[in-house]
Amino acid sequence: MKKDANSILIYKGITAYFARISTAFLVGVLLLGLAACQSHPTYQAYPGPVKPADEVASVFIPREFNLLNVDGESYIQPLVGNGTFVKFLPGSHKIVIKYVDFWEPNVEITERVASQPMLLVFDVKAGGSYLIQSREIKDIKAAKEFASNPEVDIIDKQSQTTVATDIKYKMEDKGMIAAFLGSLSSNDSPDPSPENAATTEENGQEPALEMLKYWWQKSDTEQQEDFMKWVAEKEDTASTTIENTDNESPLEMLEHWWQKANAKQQEDFMKWVVEK
């Protein structure tokens, strides 16, 4: 069974954290989220007022692809939605997308499957309507195979023909993609580690944020859910220090580093989880 990647993040704890800051805000987010689950956010990739449909091209990006960048401009993927429309002026354009989806191999496990970022270069015509399309993915095995070797087409919906597209995603292309984006995403950077955290602490820098990211990536879905519930229910208590971290579970380490983090680091960590 497949789950909506972004909805999982909402309903499994992320918004619970923000609820501790503002209950009214949470209610608003949930109401908007329920309405937005069936919506298609639209991104205008040109300056100035909205132009008539016959003067621009529309490209639809399905839900299972996160849009990261449009013509050199970073794009923040909405938490909810069912795909994104991008409106372009006629001509050549570049976007960076990434396959991200959640699957349930069984009722007790939810697994995230993601590809490397893909840079797509293509031309569109005024009044054109286009769709990013991939092969059908029916199970987690097919999802992992696709993520390791993603192939997509841009389809002209009016003529039902494939648009010539230059696609970059392999390891040898990562430098070019990184240069285009300006920097690699956090998923493409080396995982922080306890050893690196020790060095950071020696240099007078607070390692809490990096360690939260590290232990989040080491934890399984159940531990992540338990951590988010713990954050939502946690009252302001004195920090608990773990003397020996060698045999502690990822959940315990997440709680430990959360208590060591300041409010800004906690907020940055939650944003990182949402964008991940």
Tell me about this structure.
With 276 residues, this protein is α+β, with helices and mostly antiparallel strands. The protein has two domains: 2-187, no CATH class; 194-275, no CATH class. Helices cover 37% and strands 25% of the residues. The chain is built from nine helices and 13 strands. The strands form two sheets. Strands 1, 4, 5, 7, 8, 9 and 13 form a seven-stranded antiparallel sheet that branches. A six-stranded mixed sheet has the order 2-6-3-10-11-12, with no helix packed on it. A hairpin with a 2-residue loop joins strand 4 (65-70) and strand 5. Helix 6 (208-218) runs parallel beside helix 9 (263-275) and helix 7 runs parallel beside helix 8 (250-260). It starts with a strand and ends with a helix. Residues 183-191, 198-205 and 235-239 have low confidence and may be disordered.
**Low-pLDDT stretches:** 183-191, 198-205, 235-239
**Largest sheet, described in full?**
7 strands, antiparallel
Helix content: 25-40%
User: What class, by secondary structure content?
Assistant: alpha+beta
Work out the oligomeric state of the chains in this entry.
single chain
Average pLDDT:
74
What is the count of β-strands? 13
Shape: elongated
Q: What is the domain tally?
A: 2
Can you write the helix and strand succession as a string?
A: EHHEEEEEEEEEHEEEHHHHHH
Radius of gyration: 21 Å
